[in-house]
Amino acid sequence: MKISILDQAVVSKGESSRDALNNTVDLAVFADKSGFYRFWIAEHHGMTGFASSAPEVVLSAIGQLTKDIRIGSGATLLPYYKPFKVAEQYHTLSALYPGRIDLGIGRAPGGPAEVSEALSDNYLKNALNMPELAKELINYINYDNTDYKLKITPKNEEVPEVWMLGTSEKSAEAAGQAGLNYCFGEFMSNAGDIKKVLKTYKDNLSGNNGKVIVTITAFCAETTEKARDIAMSSIIFGIMKEREFGESKNDDRLPSVEEAKSFILTEEENRKVSHRMDSMIIGSQQEVGNMLERIYSDENVDELMISTNTHLLEDKINSFRLIKEYLDK
Q1: Which helix (H) or strand (E) segment is 6 a member of?
Q2: 163 pairs with which residues across the strands?
Q3: CA nearest 277: which of 218, 328, 321?
Q4: Assigned CATH topology for domain 2-221+282-327
Q5: Which residues contact 111 (CB under 8 A, 6 or more apart)?
Q6: Are the C-beta atoms of residues 323 and 220 closer than 8 Å to each other?
Q7: If pLDDT is split at 50, 70 and 90, which confidence band does 248 have?
Q8: How many whole angstroms separate alpha carbon 178 and alpha carbon 194?
Q9: Which residues of 199-233 are buried (b: 16+ CB within 10 A; e: fewer)?
Q10: DSSP-H helix ranges across 9-112
Q11: Are 101 and 161 in contact (CB under 8 A)?
Q12: What's the CA angle centered on 317, arms 10 and 276, to 5 degrees?
């Protein structure tokens, strides 16, 4: 089973954005040494709880300290950028780290509306035009551009592997029609039926055997109780962000386990916590390992990617270590 990591460079309370980015680099080094297949970095904007606004910059740092693991963006938010520039960035990474670069693309805003306006004058128009932007980007990535005046540099023998990321049947359809590999973000999707989404992708593929990744949230520890404790930090982090949209006065960083457990919730928020806890994969090594094997087998995917946000880096590394050890048995 191929197992990979999606990291969001979350900023924990008591730490700085620099600490968060250093933690991301340390996690990537651990993942490389432990045999994980990919390490992707998300893209977020205008949220102080995330330090992942420029994944292409962080990937360059990670590439220097790793040897075998594939590294990439999950996802580059294409409506904000000119495809030509994105192609140049990822061809540069491919020149530095040949055979290891992935380019995941998506169209989500990745932040509040004010940030979308600051990044692009035409975000909504470009988001609707995503199929054309993706087509243009793929041509550049594969050096298929026919305009002799446009030369993508640097010129490499190996080009980045392109993926489309999404959370719905619509994105699955778009990925299939574009002939791209597809990564389904189950961990942040309301689509419900994974099988239906992946069938939509396969049905829309035209003469191309596209690869499929499913991204999920998982927390693993020596005991189920400890796993649930470390998961609470992430769940309460989500509740705090939702409150902030209405109040704009909460500390937008990942709380400690102790703070999360003592956080005072409304009745509705308590229901949200229970629902989110049930929707995640949380438990001991055997519990989490069994659930991951079942998903991998039932959904017939090529790879599982895991997102895990914990207050302490050591809890995150321990969670991934336990999972990898179980799946390698």
Answers
A1: strand 2-7
A2: 104, 181
A3: 218
A4: TIM Barrel (3.20.20)
A5: 44, 45, 46, 47
A6: yes
A7: very low
A8: 20
A9: ebbeebbeeeebebbbbbbbbbbeeeebbbbbbbb
A10: 17-34, 55-65, 83-96
A11: yes
A12: 55
Alpha-helix runs per DSSP H in 248-312: 257-262, 267-279, 285-299
Asked whether the beta carbons of 36 and 73 are under 8 A apart, the reply is no
Per-residue pLDDT tens digits for 203-232: 999 766 899 999 999 999 999 999 999 999
pLDDT attached to residue 133: 97
Average pLDDT score over residue span 153-170: 95
Q: Which residues pair with 161 in a beta bridge?
A: 102
Listed in sequence order, the residues at least 6 apart from 70 whose beta carbon sits closer than 8 Å to its beta carbon are 4, 37, 38, 39, 100, 101, 102, 161
Question: What's the count of helices (H) and strands (E) in the chain, helices before strands?
Answer: 13, 9
Retrieve residue 283's tokens. 């438990």
Q: What is the pLDDT averaged over residues 92-116?
A: 96
Other CB atoms within 10 A of residue 102 CB: 24
Q: Diameter of the chain by CA atoms?
A: 63
Q: What pLDDT score was predicted for residue 263?
A: 95
Residue range 52-61, pLDDT digits in tens: 999 999 999 9
Global pTM? Answer: 0.96
Phi (first) and psi of residue 77, to 5 degrees: -85, 90
The label of the residue with tokens 């003592």 reads: 262
Cβ atoms 111, 51 nearer than 8 A: no
Which residue carries 């045999």 as its tokens?
A: 35
- Give the span between the Cα atoms of 134 and 105, in whole angstroms: 8
Give the amino acid at 149: K
Report the mean per-residue pLDDT for the chain.
94
Would you kindly state where each structural domain of the chain is located, as residue ranges? 2-221+282-327
Query: Which residues are within 8 A (CB) of 27 and not within 5 positions of it... i.e. 6 or more apart?
Result: 5, 7, 39, 313, 316, 317, 320
